[in-house]
Fold:
Amino acid sequence: MGVEDYLHPFREAFEALASQYAFDSDKEADHESLDLLWYLLDQATFLITGSLKDSGDAQVDDAFIQLGKIWEGDHSRSDGFQYTRSLPFEGRYVVFSDHHIYPTGHRQGYLETNLNLYGRILDNYYESEFTLIENGDVFELIIPDPDSLDLDSLRSLVSSFRQSLSQYNADALAELRQAQMQGQLPPTNAALEWYYDYYGEVDEFWKQNVTEWRLNQRLKHFERIIDSHDANLFRKIRESFVEDHRYVLLRGNHDVDLQEPRFASRLDQLYPGIFAQDIVCIRDTNNSAGYMIAHGHQFDRGTSPAMATYKGETFSESLSWAIEGPDRYWPWSECHKWTTPASPFRNRLSSAEPNEIKLAPADLIGALLVALSGGSPYALVVGGVISELYGNALRSLLHNGVLLELLFEHEIAWDYFEHSDAVSAVLEEVLPGKRWFKVRHMNELRIAKGLKDVFGEGPLPSLVLGHSHEVRQNALNSGGNAIPYYFNCGAAGRFENLVWALEIVDGEPKLVSWHSDGGPGRGNPVRLEYSDDGAGGLVTSGVPSPLSRLDRHLAVRLLAFDSLSGRL
Structure:
């Protein structure tokens, strides 16, 4: 049995599930795209379960060290922080993140329902003389759509990949892969040499061929995004914030290629003089206070520079187009509640790790027997007692979500589901296509600790991230203590008719949201302010709070600014 035969049941199961979301089982292009991209995913999985598996943790640790150096003025480049920009402490800044802008017509283009709202929000900030900071994952360059994917080039890539590995015996390779997934290395020196030879072949092909194929596909995708939105949103930003030198763009893991010369050149044509940064520092004159703004993928194992090309990018590229895109999406029917005082938004730091297995002693014995038997229930049927232990253990593991979290290798946000237990959530919500999982993959507890370790007990600069799509302000850690030096500005493109942002005015932060008061695409934009309730929630009064405007030059600005076109 070859490797692809071994993985075929998983692929079939995913296709069946995805058909409840964005996978169109009637389209041949969807089936072929999934087949070809699954092959790349399989090869990437082999690499990340090999010698690369600890690289993500090492890079996250290094990211904190780099933060300390950057804050002290050492701007030497590192993998995660190539380019740094400093801004004055006194000023008005608004930070948006995770727009995930697709070309018009893309099956995952959820931001299209927010585009008009976002444009009107920008009018408000421009008129109020804010500097606009778009904090990464602005352009969705990774997730394809089979309807526009260059299948000929993808077929050629996969065919060449298979050919380069054809010298290796498929059955022996399948055994090797199974052993590797169980954390075992080949038993003999000859087999170990064969293993490293195969590993090197896969990695070399990936670096030379997959990387170039991706860049070519993403550059075409970037052009389609620009063609779709240049006449409205991009022109508005260019002829207002960019022309006034009040625009900063950072790159995220979904638009990480923006610093590559071909992308950088095209970006400069779109926004003259703009180059994508990795981190922005806003600090007072003696470095005793301020903010460091970065997208956040540098602090996520799966999207850190060493792992992203194999793990984060590959999973998004291969699977996300068939589900709900980058992470899950919240329709207005689900997120409207966060614009009212009655429903706080969760404000606790994520661990990103699967929940601990908490079982009664009898159930723990049953779970251990399951593990020792390779997971086969038949191997445990040694009388009714063992069978009952197995059943109790399995039920406990399923209902508290541990098995699924172990599968995803991350914490799952069960709090977004209607059902309180994992089994009901999966059966009643996930499988029918009602809502997808929200996977918490960025360890915010580790971020809070890392900042303390680097900056000590003195004044800490506040770290502002995006990436996770979940807002944070004075969030509680696992001990119930508020962390005042970490913020997350949420997402502009993952919540229908709800755009999150962080404002920083002369050093004072404020978490806000905007929505159209008549529902998606209708009515006027409404700004709400949020504060922490001290109990792990973010709450708003629900009372609209218009932006305060500066008096200087404002009359001239208002006369010159056309709120519909964004033109001066």
